[in-house]
Amino acid sequence: xxQGWNWSGFFGYLFNPYILxxxxxxxxxxxxxxxxxxxxxxxLALARLSRHDWLAAPAHFYIWVFRGTPxxxxxxxxxxxxxxxxxxxxxVESALLGLILNEAAYLAEVVRGGIQSVPAxxxxxxxxxxxxxxxxxxxxxxxxxxxxxxxxxxxxxxGLLKTTSITSVISMEELLRRTQVLIQEKFMVLELFIVAxxxxxxxxxxxxxxxxRIERHYGRAYGNASExxxxxxxxxxxxxx
Length: 241
Description:
By secondary structure, this protein is mostly helical. The protein has a single domain (16-223), classed as MetI-like fold, CATH 1.10.3720. 79% of the residues lie in helices and 0% in strands. Helix 2 (17-49) runs antiparallel to helix 3, helix 2 (17-49) packs antiparallel against helix 7 (133-163) and helix 7 (133-163) crosses helix 10 (229-240).
């Protein structure tokens, strides 16, 4: 027979340092994974857009593999498979590597889609006034692409905050793993899972507020502007020259 709901246990673990530390681990793991994934993802996106097959083909293969297989399987291969090849990683290193590699595959498509959404005429106009390919990308393409990239990137961060819980299978001491440890010790299953759910909800809610502000920042130039952003940006670059 169950003992019913334990209110004192619920409130006792709502601000428990052990749980709070797990939530902090979830936060830094998310930030590190999204930062690393964005760097790798941008490189993959540019490779996918390259006219050279020796760049585009490997990038396409990478994205195909990591988007087509579960993160859980990837983590297990990294944590238990790589040591058989002589490369032994710690739990933290394995979790970070798995999250970064997986997230990069998705962010690469986000960045590629944002870049391709900018009309080719914008790039051609930039090249016509003497911009290099790098300058065109930096001053013309990316400022416009960011308006489309930011919302999807924000959703990826929101999802990653919850996806980090998968790293508990390799004993990563994040929020879910620490919740499970306490459940095994205290036998308060529902109470502790709800505590964990509250922390996840709190983190995703705070990020939602931040994301909306970022979206407004990148979208305000499109609200009242009568001229394309690319033209305004081009004028700034010409003045800097």
